[in-house]
C-alpha cells in the first residue's frame, strides 16, 4: 500500500519580530486510459517544475519530495489577504497575471477540487484540507475569514500564542491527526507575536491496480553515483505498463495506475542525463508524454522506498519571484487592518512510502503570520539509479506529488 502526506504551514507575525521559523485491474486484456492532455489544471504546472528545480539545486544529490498542490493552495490562500505588489508577486509566481477574473478562477477551481476530494472514492484515499489557528485578541478581517471558510473549507481554531508551547502542541496535534500520524512536529518554534498559523494538508493512500508479489522482491544494487552503490529491496513484475522513450530528453517513462483515479509516473534518465531531464521538465513536456504513452510489455524492477522532504519555503519561493510577502514590505491588509504583518515562516513537510501493494504519501504546508506504439517483445526496465517520480490525480490533472529518489 502506498501513502503520501504533505503539509504546508504559514506563520504570520509582526514585522518587528524575528523570524522563527494517485478500480479496475489493468490486465493484458484491458487497461485504464491515461488522459490525452492536461489543459484544465488549476494553474500552470510550470510552478511545480520551477519549484522542483529550486529545491533540487539547493540540495544537489539528495532526495526531493513535495506536494505542488499543497504549496500552491497555501499561496492562493495568502493571495486572498494580499494586496498590491505582494499579491502580484504571488499570482505571477503561480503562473498568473494580476487579473481579477484569473484570481477568481484560481480560488473557484481550488474550491471545486476540495469538494471533489471530500467525496469517498473507490480504492483511493485522497483528502485535502485547510485550517486557521488564530489569536482571538486580534481583529481578523471578516471577509477573509468567510472566504476561507466558503472557498477553502477551512477549519478555524482560537489559539493562545502567548503560550507558545501550548499553541505549538495544538497545531502539531491537529496536523498529526489529519495525516494519520505521518507528519509530526511540523511546528518547531512559535513566537509570542504570532497572530495566525495557516495549515494545508494532503493525505494520499492508494493500491496499485496490480500489486507486486512480495516473493519476487530481492536485494539488488542501486547505483547512487559512480562511486556509491547500496543494496535495496527491488520489487519486480512483468505486465503491460504505459511506456514511452523521450529521445529529446534522454529518458524513459513508465506509468503505473493506482486503483481509483490516480497514476504514478516513474522517470528514468539515461546515464549522465539527470540534469538534462530536470531542466526539460515543464507543462508542455508532460502534455507530450500523455500523448506518447503506449502500453508495452515490461519486466519492471522498481525499488521499495520511503523518503521524506522538509523545506523552508521562505528561502525557496523568493527565487521564483515570491519575495515581498516574507519582508517588512508585505501588504497583507486583507487579513487584518494592521499594516505591519508579514509571513515569517512557510514550512512544508512530505513523506512517501512505495511498496509492493501501493503508495502512501502525505504532506503539509504551514504558514505563520505575525505582526510585520507497443512492441510484443518484453523490455527490461530497471530503476537501479536515481530517478524521478510524479503522482497525478487524473480528474483534476493536478500534480499531487513530485520528487527525485537518489537514496531509496
UniProtKB/TrEMBL annotation:
<keyword id="KW-0646">Protease inhibitor</keyword>
<keyword id="KW-0732">Signal</keyword>
<dbReference type="Pfam" id="PF00079">
    <property type="entry name" value="Serpin"/>
</dbReference>
<dbReference type="InterPro" id="IPR000215">
    <property type="entry name" value="Serpin_fam"/>
</dbReference>
<dbReference type="InterPro" id="IPR023796">
    <property type="entry name" value="Serpin_dom"/>
</dbReference>
<dbReference type="InterPro" id="IPR023795">
    <property type="entry name" value="Serpin_CS"/>
</dbReference>
<dbReference type="InterPro" id="IPR036186">
    <property type="entry name" value="Serpin_sf"/>
</dbReference>
<keyword id="KW-0722">Serine protease inhibitor</keyword>
<dbReference type="GO" id="GO:0004867">
    <property type="term" value="F:serine-type endopeptidase inhibitor activity"/>
</dbReference>
<protein>
    <submittedName>
        <fullName>Plasma serine protease inhibitor</fullName>
    </submittedName>
</protein>
<feature type="signal peptide">
    <location>
        <begin position="1"/>
        <end position="18"/>
    </location>
</feature>
<dbReference type="InterPro" id="IPR042185">
    <property type="entry name" value="Serpin_sf_2"/>
</dbReference>
<dbReference type="GO" id="GO:0005615">
    <property type="term" value="C:extracellular space"/>
</dbReference>
<feature type="domain" description="Serpin">
    <location>
        <begin position="49"/>
        <end position="408"/>
    </location>
</feature>
<comment type="similarity">
    <text>Belongs to the serpin family.</text>
</comment>
<dbReference type="InterPro" id="IPR042178">
    <property type="entry name" value="Serpin_sf_1"/>
</dbReference>
Amino acid at each position: 500500500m502506498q501513502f503520501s502526506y504533505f503539509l504546508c504551514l504559514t506563520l504570520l507575525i509582526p514585522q518587528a519580530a524575528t523570524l522563527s521559523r494517485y478500480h479496475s485491474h489493468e490486465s493484458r486484456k484491458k487497461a485504464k486510459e491515461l488522459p490525452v492532455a492536461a489543459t484544465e489544471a488549476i494553474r500552470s504546472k510550470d510552478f511545480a517544475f520551477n519549484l522542483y528545480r529550486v529545491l533540487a539545486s539547493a540540495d544537489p544529490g539528495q532526495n526531493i519530495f513535495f506536494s505542488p498542490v499543497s504549496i500552491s493552495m497555501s499561496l492562493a490562500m495568502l493571495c486572498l489577504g494580499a494586496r498590491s505588489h505582494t499579491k502580484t508577486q504571488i499570482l505571477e509566481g503561480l503562473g498568473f497575471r494580476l487579473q481579477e477574473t484569473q484570481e477568481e478562477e484560481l480560488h473557484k477551481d481550488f474550491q471545486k477540487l476540495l469538494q471533489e476530494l471530500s467525496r469517498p472514492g473507490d480504492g483511493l484515499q485522497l483528502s485535502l484540507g485547510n485550517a486557521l489557528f488564530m489569536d482571538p485578541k486580534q481583529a481578523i478581517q471578516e471577509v477573509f475569514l468567510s472566504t476561507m471558510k466558503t472557498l477553502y473549507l477551512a477549519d478555524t481554531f482560537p489559539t493562545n500564542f502567548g503560550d507558545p508551547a501550548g499553541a505549538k502542541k495544538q497545531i502539531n496535534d491537529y496536523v498529526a491527526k489529519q495525516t494519520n500520524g505521518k507528519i509530526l512536529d511540523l511546528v518547531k518554534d512559535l513566537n509570542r507575536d504570532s497572530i495566525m498559523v495557516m495549515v494545508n494538508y494532503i493525505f494520499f493512500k492508494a493500491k496499485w491496480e496490480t500489486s507486486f508479489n512480495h516473493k519476487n522482491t530481492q536485494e539488488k544494487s542501486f547505483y547512487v553515483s559512480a562511486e556509491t552503490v547500496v543494496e535495496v529491496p527491488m520489487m519486480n513484475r512483468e505486465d503491460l505498463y504505459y511506456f514511452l522513450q523521450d529521445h529529446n530528453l534522454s529518458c524513459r517513462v513508465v506509468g503505473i495506475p493506482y486503483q481509483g483515479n490516480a497514476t504514478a509516473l516513474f522517470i528514468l534518465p539515461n546515464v549522465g542525463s539527470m540534469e538534462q531531464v530536470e531542466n526539460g521538465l515543464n507543462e508542455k513536456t508532460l502534455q507530450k508524454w500523455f500523448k506518447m504513452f503506449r502500453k508495452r510489455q515490461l519486466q519492471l524492477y522498481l525499488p521499495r522506498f520511503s523518503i521524506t522532504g522538509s523545506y523552508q519555503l521562505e528561502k525557496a519561493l523568493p527565487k521564483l519571484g515570491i519575495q515581498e510577502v516574507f519582508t517588512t514590505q508585505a501588504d497583507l491588509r486583507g487579513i487584518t487592518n494592521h499594516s505591519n504583518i508579514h509571513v515569517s515562516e512557510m514550512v512544508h513537510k512530505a513523506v512517501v512510502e512505495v511498496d509492493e501493494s501501493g503508495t502512501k504519501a502525505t504532506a503539509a504546508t504551514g504558514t505563520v503570520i505575525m505582526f510585520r506504439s507497443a512492441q510484443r517483445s518484453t523490455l527490461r526496465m530497471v530503476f537501479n539509479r536515481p530517478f524521478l517520480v510524479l503522482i497525478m490525480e487524473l480528474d483534476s490533472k493536478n500534480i499531487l506529488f513530485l520528487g527525485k529518489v537518489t537514496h531509496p
